[in-house]
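=== RUN LOG ===
request id: a7f3
mode: sequence -> structure
chains: 1
length: 131
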Amino acid sequence: MSHEIDPEGLPYDPKTQDRKEYVGFGEFVALDLRTGIITQVEDFPEMRKPSYKITVDFGPVVGSLQSSAQITNYLKSELIGRMVVGAINLGDKTLPTGFASQFLVLGALAADGTVKLLELPEDVVPGSVIA
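=== RESULT ===
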C-alpha cells in the first residue's frame, strides 16, 4: 500500500489499492483479534502524524493495553467508552518517544487517509474474540 499522497490528495482511494497477496487461513487465525473498550485517551503531540495515546480494556484475560492511534478525526470524548477491535499479538512497538504501543486498533481507511473505527453491536463484551 502506498503512503505517498496522490495529486488529488486521496492516498487510500479504494480504486487505487492493489489486492494483497494470499496469506492462507492459518496466518489469519494466528492473529488474536479482540474487542475492548477505550478507557483513556491522551494527546500525543510528539508524533509526526496527529495521534492519541489510548488505553483499552480487553477484558479479564488480557486486561488493559496501550497504543498510539492516528484517530484524531474523533473527539476524545467520542472515544471514551467506545468498543473497538484490536490486534493484540503483533508484539510491542517502541516509538521514538519511548512509548510502547502494545496493539493495533482496527478501522477502515477512508480515501483521505482518516481511520473510521469498526462498529460493533452493543451486546459485545470486552475480550470477545473476532472470528
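=== NOTES ===
The chain has a mean pLDDT of 92.
The CA atoms of residues 89 and 104 lie 9 Å apart.
=== END ===
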